[in-house]
Amino acid sequence: MDGKRQKKKLRSGYTTGACAAAAAKAALLTLSGQPVPAAVAIPFPDGSRHTFSLCRCLKKKDFVLASVVKDAGDDPDVTNGAEIGVELRWLAHDGEQDQGGTVLFAQGRGVGRVTKPGLPLPVGEVAINPVPRKMIIAALDEAIPPAKRPGLELRVFVENGAVLAEKTLNQRLGILGGLSILGTTGIVRPISTKAWTDTIEASMAVARAAGLTEVVLATGRTSEAAVQARLGLPEEALVMMGDYLRYALEAAQRHGFTTIHLAAMWAKLVKAALGVPQTHVRNGALDVRDAALLLAELGLPAQEQETMRQANTARHIYELLCQQKRWDLIAAVASRARKQAVQWSGLAVQVYLVSAEKEVVLHVPH
Fold first, then answer.
1. DSSP letters of 300-358?
2. Domains of the chain, each with CATH number or no CATH
3. What tens digit of pLDDT does each residue of 55-107 get?
């Protein structure tokens, strides 16, 4: 040991789609008359195999209910610990079983339905994304090949899914009634960048499908709410980018927007002005010395620079500037942030500085 603290390796987990696929395989095995399994192994898109212990597997009158408890690893996922499962029955037409090996996806409790265009599913479909559907079908095919089984009606459910969905952006994206069944690999990576970027991409796709040409990129809910109160844009225009500043700006250009409304509080705005592409503290806490150098470049007198360098935090710097009524320097930082955002996006950008009191205190138009 060199005396340095070893960084703990974060544990990966499983997506809702992978959990649903495992439950589907267990349900089909049981529906076909085989013994109720304690666990099942299923294939993943990368060719690997993973085993899931069952939470429940119950044979009812004409269907089987099977479920697993989701383990999201060390990712702060709202569905971590949720019971995710399926209700599976033979598909019948006019009282006879459908013999075509069909899988009909129906809406189960706690799972939403798509109501807006721009998502990878058509409006009206149950919100089970394409890769989870493929994983579910692959798991079913392992249990009984499609040529040897009747058609199936499959309902994915998430216990308390409607309540959990309130903690997500689903409603804004037009997914109503519950959660989405998600995942492109079956694996949840801890504190997943991909989860954020996928959400940014989906939000922008919905906004463009709604015919919008301008979008609000906000670092948090406070900033978003303050700017939305001023602009009154359609809900689809609101894109929560979190700390993925440069990614969101470049994505806005790719999706064909013409105007960006960038909403942030002071610390994030300073990072933008400094050209920091990913503004989360884990990628480097804002060094107040860098902020002081920026202010010096923007006109802070030499005799005041040491005071700023001795500040505790970015917020402390902001409080000092306000006390000194240096609105010009605050505006200069916002203008520098706008210039950087324009450089990254190639679009017209307006910047809004939002206070801790949830008010827009500065607007820099394009």
1. --HHHHHHHHT-SSHHHHHHHHHHTT-HHHHHHHHHHHHHHHHHHH-SEEEEEEE-TTS
2. 13-188 (3.30.2110.10), 195-364 (no CATH)
3. 999 999 899 999 999 999 888 789 999 999 999 999 976 666 666 789 999 99
